[in-house]
Amino acid sequence: MSEVTITRAVRMPDPFRIERFLSNPKLGPRLLFFSGGSALNGVAQRLKRYTHNSIHLVTPFDSGGSSQGLRVAFDMPAIGDLRSRLMALADETVLGHPDVFRLFTHRFAKSAPGTDLAGELDAMIAGTHPLVEAIEVPMRTLIQNQLDRFRAACPESFDLRGASIGNLILAGGYLHQNQQLEPIIFLVSKLVGVQGTVRAVTDDNLHLGAVLENGETVIGQHLLTGKEHPPLTSPIRDLFLNLGLRGRTPARSQIPERNRKLISSADLICYAPGSFHTSLVANLLADGAGRSIAARTVPKVYVPAMGADPEAGGMDLPHRVRTLLAYLRKDAGSDCPVNRLLNLVVADQSVPESEAAEVSALGVAVVRLDLVSEQSAPYYDPAALCDALVSLV
Predict the structure, then answer these.
(1) Which of 91, 99, 181, 230 is the most buried (most CB within 10 A)?
(2) Per-residue pLDDT averaged across 328-334, rounded?
């Protein structure tokens, strides 16, 4: 099998390519995103109009929010971001089983007594809860089984307040499948008609750690984001994978072979907007990530996050690009050419020309477009960003 590199001029946005993909999304391009968190969910939801073949490699390292209780209770990877991306890509037509979608996006009340929530969960398991009763068999039975497995393994101290039902179903499936995420992600993808592919970037149950510029070590994603806890007082110097939340115990992880194959089949690779360290860089820490990216000759695009990012305080665009390349080269090799790892930055026109020029000097082209609308400000307009990305393939 031979690989041929073809160079062509690109028009951004390209009306011809946009219209072609909009007319037949089932045959749309395989855009692969390294991302986590919720920053890309609006784009993913819009992207379904252009392609049903997008690929999303998502971080399973979160230690806060809705995932924290499940990670503590069952010693498992984080599933909140996986669940939210699956729902963003779910088929929203009648064929996509909207009853299943409604159940997966339902949350228990935050202020209800624990006994009431336990009773609501029992009703779901019994199939008498309206949200479950509305689902046809055999899908209903499959969902009941996962919730029953969760309930059986759930410690009495587990707090159901505000819990996502989708997360509980995924947790039950994880326990049912010998602590493997892949089978239950596959099942949920079929249940809600996911129009794309969503995978955890690695199978390992690990956490994030960071060494700060002041020499301090911080363990746990929830302490790095500046959202649930006060922002870091010193910039992040190095991000690493850690075995647990108690003390520094660096760990290594491998990109699974199935994810290597997904990368090798991509028509475009996108380093997606989101929290710079915990959503983007975290996806690139597993062994094999940089090498797999370098081996694929397709457009490789960085879309910098809009709005405030407490993790990247003081990092302008050139700083972020240099940092991204540095992490990729940890695996791909220090002498790996820039164009094998990153070809293009797609940014809003608000990015200063001076920063764009500095990035161009690194060997990475920068395209500044009008990507923020009045409705989306201060974030990307999903339609404008999707138009830009599909124009490149």
Answers:
(1) 181
(2) 98
Q: Please give the DSSP secondary-structure letter assigned to residue 234.
A: S
Looking at the chain, the number of H-run helices and the number of E-run strands are 16, 10
Angle at Cα 289 formed by Cα 283 and Cα 290, nearest 5°? 115
Q: Kindly indicate the confidence band of residue 362, based on its pLDDT and cuts at 50, 70 and 90.
A: very high
- Can you tell me the distance from the alpha carbon of 116 to that of 139, in angstroms, rounded to the nearest whole number? 25
- Which residue in 60, 14, 18 sits closest to 35, CA to CA? 60
In CATH terms, 15-28+35-54+255-390 corresponds, of 3.40.50.10680, 3.40.640.10, 3.90.180.10, 3.40.50.720, to 3.40.50.10680
Task: Compute the distance between CA of residue 127 and CA of residue 134 in angstroms, rounded to an integer.
Answer: 9
Amino acid identity of residue 77, one-letter, is P
Whether the bond between 13 and the residue before it is cis, its omega within 30 degrees of 0, is yes
Residue 99's closest CA among 76, 72, 131? 131
